[in-house]
Amino acid sequence: MSRRSALSSTISGRSASYAIGVDLGATKIAAALVSRDGRVVAEKRVPTEPALGEEAVIGRMATLVQELSQEASGPLAGVGIGTPGYVNSAAGIVQNAVNLGWQEVPLAQRLQAALPMHLDIWVENDANVQALGEYYFGAARGCDHFVFIGIGSGLGSGIISRGALITGATYMAAEMGHLSLDPEGRQCACGLRGCVETVVSGPGIVASVQKYLAQGRPMGSRLAAGGPLTPERVLQAAQEGDPAARAAFAEAASWLGMVFAAYVAILNPAKIVIGGGLGLSGFDLLVPDAMGELRRRVGAQSLEALQVVRSQLSSSAVGASALVWAAAGQDGQR
Q1: d(CA 157, CA 276)
Q2: Shortest CA distance to 141 belongs to which of 131, 151, 149?
Q3: Which residue intervals of the chain bear CATH 3.30.420.40?
């Protein structure tokens, strides 16, 4: 949807009671019918199965949107979609979504064509919509300067400054997951080496444990036996004090602290909100050491007002719905 179309929908958006948010991921599509105050009225999810092709994935999204629209007891403001990849939000086009196998997909146009009714549709990078969700309904309500960092199968982030989402000249702002901190490091799916998310992510944590086990250090890890390594298993082992798992989380925390430092030095945020599956479940393992790394790299004056907090969104689809309220000129009862 174009920005001009978004402006034309403002009048109808003001009288609307609900929005539909869709979180498009590589493994699942989560969708929710959300009220203007961020309450989830209904939600559905289906597997993404990107190997079946673009049309199949978009068809699944259309089915979810139709089903949820029938559960709304009032008018809909539109549909917001959070998706991996680089997103031209003005045109609703998704580019280079590696995990989906998409090169350039006009998602807003294609989804509208798959629906039997007209709905305004907005598309944005998934981390950006999570930042909007925290601003409207979550841990950053009332905070006009903050950064959202989502840690899961990768690392994504979004920036709110002066109450506005920062997307950049070519819609690639806040792509911190693909900042290379070690150009000789692990191969990243983006083509570079040593990107942040090769260490600070579920797969990155697993790769670090595999590295330590292969090197035979630290001694005493039980992770070499007992089945395949998964982020969940490594997390549990770290919580139980396993030395290899702890070392992997310590390495990830150090890199995360460098990400914190970059954001603090450039943006001076009041909050950093941590979300994503691993970000939430591993918060206590990651954040204290990351803060230690941050203090090594940034002056104390920049840290005086900084808070690092957990995400408070009940569903990833709530963030996508916030995209609708933002585009339609709503304030979500903030």
Answers
A1: 10
A2: 131
A3: 3-134+315-327, 141-310
Count how many Cα atoms sit within 13 Å of the Cα of residue 160 in the half-sphere of its side chain. 28
Per-residue burial over 107-130, b = 16 or more CB atoms within 10 Å of its CB, e = otherwise: bbebbbebbeeebbbbbbbbbbbb
| Residue spans of alpha helices (H) in the chain | 3-8, 10-15, 54-69, 107-114, 126-137, 202-215, 231-239, 243-267, 277-281, 283-297, 316-327
The pLDDT of residue 15: 60
Instruction: Give the closest residue to 200 by CA, choosing from 125, 260, 256, 142.
Output: 256
d(CA 4, CA 92): 13
The pTM score is 0.90
List the beta bridge partners of residue 203: none
**Exposed (0-12), middle (13-18) or buried (19+): which is 26, by Cβ within 10 Å?**
middle
Q: Which of the four CATH numbers 3.40.50.300, 3.40.190.10, 3.30.420.40, 2.60.40.1180 does domain 141-310 have? A: 3.30.420.40
Topology (CATH) of 3-134+315-327: Nucleotidyltransferase; domain 5 (3.30.420)
Pair type for strands 271-275 and 307-310: parallel
> How many Cβ atoms from other residues are within 10 Å of residue 31's Cβ?
29
The string of DSSP codes covering 249-301 is HHHHHHHHHHHHHHHHHHH--SEEEEESHHHHHTHHHHHHHHHHHHHHHS-GG
Pair 35, 17: CB distance under 8 Å: yes
What Cα–Cα distance (Å) separates residue 191 from each residue in 51, 96, 179, 246? 21, 12, 11, 28
DSSP 76-94: EEEEEEEESSEEETTTTEE
Contact 176, 155 (CB under 8 A): yes
Tens of pLDDT, residue by residue over 225-281, are 878 999 999 999 999 999 999 999 999 999 999 999 999 999 999 999 999 999 999
